Amino acid sequence: MQRKGNSFYLDGLLCGIKQLNPQGGWLPHSPTEGWQIDTPPIHECNKIYLQDDLTFRNNKILELEKYIKHYGDDVKKITFYTWHKGLIDLYPTLNLKWYPLFLKDHLLNALKYKDLIEKELNFENKTNKFLCLNARIRPHRDVIFDHD
Question: Where residue 42 falls among pLDDT bands split at 50, 70, 90?
Fold first, then answer.
């Protein structure tokens, strides 16, 4: 991630959702208002990456609604990159591109640590015991696993 002034960029794209506070820490999220958004002049930046989770409320994406309100008709000059598929069905007039940057990150990390992964993830002695990736036991997954 690169920082330019009060804005952050990933893979050369402006991070449109303001999550990181330039002074440090995180900015708050509101479930009724959504995330704050970064709104540069279009002539300076017309490629915006909507990273992470967007806020869905009343059949609308709150962050996209903020962009529409802020830019008006000029919002059509912006291309929004997002890992959420199907947004074009809700917003057919916007320029939305599916851009799952997290998959690229996973691939690069897997290649970087290939030897370690092959060594540590030995499935020769695999058991039926497992733990969720976020390290929290989930009883509903145990039920699914034990289901015949």
Answer: very high
Within a domain: 45: yes
Distance of CA 49 to the CA centre of its chain: 8
- pTM: predicted TM-score of the whole model, two decimal places: 0.72
- DSSP letter, residue 74: G
Kindly provide the b/e burial profile for residues 9-48, where b requires at least 16 CB atoms within 10 angstroms of the residue's own CB.
beeebbbbbbebeeeeeeeeeeeeebbbbbbeeeeebbbb
Residue 57 is assigned to a structural domain of this protein: yes
Whether residue 56 lies inside any domain: the answer is yes
Q: Tell me which residue range forms the domain holding 88.
A: 2-101
CB atoms within 10 A of CB 74: 13
pLDDT in tens, 71-90: 999 999 999 999 888 899 99
Query: Domain tally for the chain?
Result: 1
- What size, in residues, is the chain? 148
Residue 89, in any domain of the structure: yes
Cα 91 to Cα 85: distance, rounded to the nearest angstrom: 12
**pLDDT 10s digits, 2-34:** 888 888 888 889 999 988 887 888 888 999 999
